[in-house]
Write a structure and sequence with these properties.
- There is one protein chain.
- With 185 residues, the chain is mostly beta strands.
- It has three domains: 2-62, SH3 type barrels (Roll); 65-124, OB fold (Dihydrolipoamide Acetyltransferase, E2P) (Beta Barrel); 128-184, Beta Barrel (OB fold (Dihydrolipoamide Acetyltransferase, E2P)).
- The protein is 0% helix and 54% strand.
- It has no helices and 16 strands.
- Strands 1-6-2-3-4-5 form a six-stranded antiparallel β-sheet, with no helix packed on it. Strands 9-8-7-10-11 form a five-stranded antiparallel β-sheet, with no helix packed on it. Strands 14-13-12-15-16 form a five-stranded antiparallel β-sheet, with no helix packed on it.
- A hairpin with a 6-residue loop joins strand 8 (79-83) and strand 9 (90-93).
C-alpha cells in the first residue's frame, strides 16, 4: 500500500478491485480545504477511463507490473508471434490483444508489452512506423492547387490518405495513434 501523494503517471493501481494504469495525476490544495489527489486512470481489462479523487493521506493498492520489449515476428492461424530479443523466446498473442495495433505490425517492429500480475495487458507501439505503399492510384496532373489526398493501401492492408505524389513501392511514415500520413520515409 502506498499513499495517494506518491502516485505518478504510468503506475498501476487496483481501484474498485480492477487493475488500472494512472494516466494523469494532479495534487490540489483548494483554499482552506484539505489537500487531495485527482487522477485519471484507465482500467486495463476494459480500456475505459475514469476520473478519481483520493484524499492525500488515503492508501492506494499498488499492482505488480513489468514492461518488456518484444519484436513482432509473424502472424498465422494461431495468432501474432513476438520474440524476446534477449532470450529469443517466442510469445503468441491472440487477435483480441493486438486488435487496435494489427494494422501497423511489420516484421521486426519493436513493441512494448505491459504485464500486470504476470499477464499481458496492453501492447504499445512506437509513435510512428514506416510502411510500404503496395497500391495507389495515379494522381491527376494539374490537381495540386490544394492539399489533395488520395487513398493508398499499405503492406499491412491498412488504407490511408496520402498526397498525390506518393507512388506504389514508396515507404511512408504513419502515426500509430491516429493512423495519419506523416511524410516520406
Amino acid at each position: 500500500m502506498a499513499a495517494a501523494n506518491d502516485l505518478r503517471k504510468g503506475m498501476c493501481i487496483r481501484y474498485n478491485g480492477n487493475p488500472a494504469i494512472v494516466l494523469e495525476v494532479m495534487h490540489r490544495t483548494p483554499g482552506n480545504l484539505r489537500a487531495f489527489v485527482q487522477a485519471i486512470i484507465r482500467y486495463i481489462g476494459t480500456g475505459k477511463s475514469a476520473d478519481v479523487r483520493f484524499g492525500s493521506t488515503d492508501k492506494v493498492d499498488m499492482v505488480d507490473v513489468q514492461r518488456t520489449t518484444l519484436e513482432f515476428s509473424y502472424k498465422d492461424h494461431q495468432g501474432y508471434h513476438f520474440m524476446d530479443p534477449e532470450t529469443y523466446d517466442t510469445v503468441t498473442f491472440d487477435g483480441s490483444m493486438v486488435e487496435e495495433t494489427k494494422d501497423f505490425l511489420v516484421e521486426n517492429l519493436k513493441v512494448e508489452v505491459l504485464y500486470v500480475e504476470g499477464r499481458a495487458a496492453t501492447l504499445d507501439l512506437p509513435a510512428s512506423v514506416v510502411l510500404k505503399v503496395t497500391e495507389s492510384a495515379d494522381g491527376v496532373k494539374g490537381d495540386s492547387a490544394n492539399n489533395v489526398m488520395k487513398p493508398a493501401t499499405l503492406e499491412t492492408g491498412k488504407i490511408i490518405n496520402v498526397p498525390l505524389f506518393i507512388k506504389e513501392g514508396e515507404k511512408v511514415k504513419v502515426d500509430t495513434r491516429t493512423g495519419d500520413y506523416m511524410g516520406r520515409a
